[in-house]
Fold each of these.
Amino acid sequence: MSLHADKATPYQPDTLPLEKLDYRLLFALVGEANAELARYDGLLQGIPNPAVMLSPLTTQEAVLSSKIEGTQATVDEVLEQEAGLEKEGEKYKDIQEISNYRSALYQASEHLKSYPIRLSFILDLHRILLSSVRGQGKTPGEFRKDQNWIGRAGCTMEQASFVPPSPLQLQDHLQAWQEYLDFDDSDFLLQVAVAHAQFELLHPFKDGNGRIGRLLIPLFLFQKKALSQPMFYLSEYLEANRDEYYQRLSNISKEGDWNGWIAFFLKAITVQAKQNSARVKAIMGLYDDMKQRIHEITRSQYSVYLLDALFSKPIFKTSDLASQLERDFGISKRTVPALLRQLKEAGVLLELTPGSGRKPAVLCFAELLNLAEGKEVF
């Protein structure tokens, strides 16, 4: 096992699969994490249209994974921006990064229905992730060709807290990492813990390593058939425990402490699976309640289509929603304003900005956003 004694020396990653793990320490944690993940996936399998119903959770994951890297935007702000309430300056750039993350997640989910995770696929995800003003100088869609290091801003390589592997050896390490993804290790949760950490330690990009690494967690679990949909989001726990997250990764390179990292990761899976399950149950409950309520309010044959549209885009321009309903379900645009007015008067929808002249109103389905962000709904 190669310990990272000299800070200025590039890290030599351990060979995968790992030979020495403390299975006595990890056995109970693996069992509990597997049980909670299976309960969560059971809920997922019961959702008729998970991509629609859990769309706000996907946005929340993009927000939190990006927040770990320093962005400051909220789910509401991302959706407001997309509904035409333009933000400016750094906030706009933050939202662009979050939107890119979500786009990468959606495209990855589609890709993995037919193909396994490959390095070329990860380069495509990186290109999507960094397709913005901030990412242009960070060689989007390319593995690094230079030596990089991690430390305080402006520090030299000798002052760095971590120096990833040499770019001369990076491609070989990445190839070995890809082969490990195809290997069936003793348990898929142990394996995803190892794969995530190894990717972060290889640090193959100039920027975006953390976000790509976290994005790969649900994709790997989906590929291994541990999930029926690639929709298990871990960033809430990792963001709440950011210091320990980084310290546990650091301890692998400094002390060879894989057991401590894996124990932390398995606890993250267990806690997050419980929280995700509770949130999915709440969202499914809201969907069922709203299916009945919207029909009672509108008495419309289109009430279910309207509900699906609200779940897929909880903040929207009235004109955009009308176009979406006409495009997807053939509902006349003239029908929609009256339906929305009824829902607004009943308190289901809130008006963020009123319409004036040709400018459409922007409305919000607040109850769903509150559930997605983990807020209590009163």
Note: The two ends are 54 Å apart (CA to CA).
Amino acid sequence: MDKIIFIDDDSDVRATYKLSMDILFSNDFEVICLDVERSIDEMIQVLNNIPEKVTYFIDEKLKHSGKAKYTGVDLIERIRIFDSKIPIYILTSYAGEIEKYLGDIEFVIDKNDWDLGEDESHLSKRFMRHINTYKDIKSQQAKRFEFLLEKSIFSTLTEKELEEFKALDLSRVKNITSEGIISDESLDELNAASDELDAIFTELSEDDDDK
């Protein structure tokens, strides 16, 4: 089952939003609410061990309890190394403080505005468009990887196809926990493969803001 990940360092907040998200996403998704790990590498390892993730909701003030050494934005920047397309939302009471980070996230949701009503229904529709777009992209990536894998078995890949294949293969790695493990060259290959799929992403999401 597809999984919605919510990360917050406050157990009461996690319990509250677990109920809200279960209602919002009905029975189509499993909502997993996670406490923070002390280091960002430990947090990434926990996330990489969860399959079928389709979106994240992350609180910005993850340092509030004193357990974590990183903010929500710090965590998002690390997640983007492994998955540049997955929808990510900041859920916070301090929305005005993180406007400049919108490049890494879909949008900021003010906790004070999160209630079960018409606004949330509108948000739900936007969430579903983002999730469905992401799943379409992942499906295209998987199909392309399988095509290149089969071709590599029965014939020879071109140099460009080989580079794409290596990048797509890298994107399937789930248990890398340190940014330093990935070389700049490997990241460039991964980004190149991701860029090649941007046309698909744009076509699927170009009407999002108008709906």
Note: Strands lie at 3-7, 30-34, 53-58, 88-92, 107-110.
Amino acid sequence: MKRFIILLHRYLGLGAALLAITLGISGSLLVFRAELQSEISPDSRPTLATPVSYQAAYAMARLHYPHADISLRLPENSRDSIQARVRSKGQPDITLWLDPVSGRILQQQDSNAQGWGWLHELHARLLLPEGKIWVGCAGVLITLVLLSGIIHWWPKNWSKAWRVRRDKGVAILVSDLHRTAGAAMLLLLLLSTLSGLVLAFNQPLRDWLTPAKQGKPGKHATIQPTGQRLPLDVLIQLVRTRLPEGRITGINISARSDKPVEIRLKMPGEMHPNGSTLVQADPYQGKQLRIEKTETSNPWRRVSSWALVLHDGSFAGTAQRVATALTGLLLMLLGGSGVYQWLARRRKQAAVRTAGVAAGIAGP
């Protein structure tokens, strides 16, 4: 039986190696995206005497993209640039970085064509239209490799369980490091892989586990566009007055004039990094139409929020983020060292066959 497990581990690992390398290195970099992403126009940050204007940022984005849905992502530090995601039907998404006081466009790029957007699409979807399903399948494959690997490693003699032989050549050294590192970090590897599986299969799992009449997102209310729209800063102040304990993280403005403005907040106790509380407001009358605390109303949202913070390292501060990044690097190294071992085994077998043929020719 163990021989079968060893073969299963070897060939599943060989098939998953490229995916493990790709997901491992991209995930490690994305954990520290905020630190590694270059700052944009630091001299444009506001002083204490210059108030932030979310309306100015929105007005500039709307001026350039009058028929698009616009989502503003608000930074934790109000002096940082505001990020706007622009979505137009039939067109690739555009990301704008906007001055938080004047609304001036500091930088613009195709959201998924380059840089960090491209790296995120690689990690989350492998750059494929239905890539989340393929990433989920890769996660299943990697999970099987990890579980078969621990069975393969499980020693009869525990005194040799963590042995790393440095005097037996490179192939033996790589093999020992592969086994011991995989065993030592198994729980973190499984945590990262299984949380990624939940995120990749989020929609089908939610549909399966959530009762038909529960957990469905609320429909947007339809409003009557009358008069001038209120500035976003006024709507934000109204929400802050109603929910002072929450931090506003995003604002979604539809291109349609009869749709409410949706404001996203992170409330105390919510796990999702961007929060899960949604407030719909009438942009003409300033009335609050709906408050939806999705982590309370939808149990599956709590599961997916937990999966996200465990997967991206945002739950337990810097220590967890470092551990998450190291786990991704280890996954990459395990994939690469597994391929190296397979190639070394092939070379050794070829050398043995060559030696056997040579011995047969030289014999009587």
Note: Residues 317-362 form the longest helix (46 residues).
Amino acid sequence: MAAQTILVVEDEFLIRFMLADSLREVGYRILEAANGVEALDILRSGQTVDLMVTDVRMPGEVDGLELMRRSKSLAPSRPVIICSAHLFEQDVHPADAFLAKPYSIAALADIIARLIGDPWTNDSQTRSA
């Protein structure tokens, strides 16, 4: 049985590294993307992605909100967590959860567990593009 997979999308390398490393320590399998275009490539690749965590403001033509919309069109049941210091929860519909920056890893891990369960949940809500 494989661990559930989370796609972490964050343009700031140190933040992305810290998030990915912390979630790996919890037990999740992590895929990383530095921008929306990289994330879309992963989502369209056929790799299993059980949940996506994304920043909003990123360089390039696809910001976090557009990435969320495209992810939902590829796999409507795949949960998306939006993280931003510039928006409010009411601005991120149809995201499944919102975290205002700065936030703690514990807060993120709690939301992830609520949305998809622990890393080794047998009834994984596996979502592929």
Note: DSSP finds four helices and five strands in the chain.
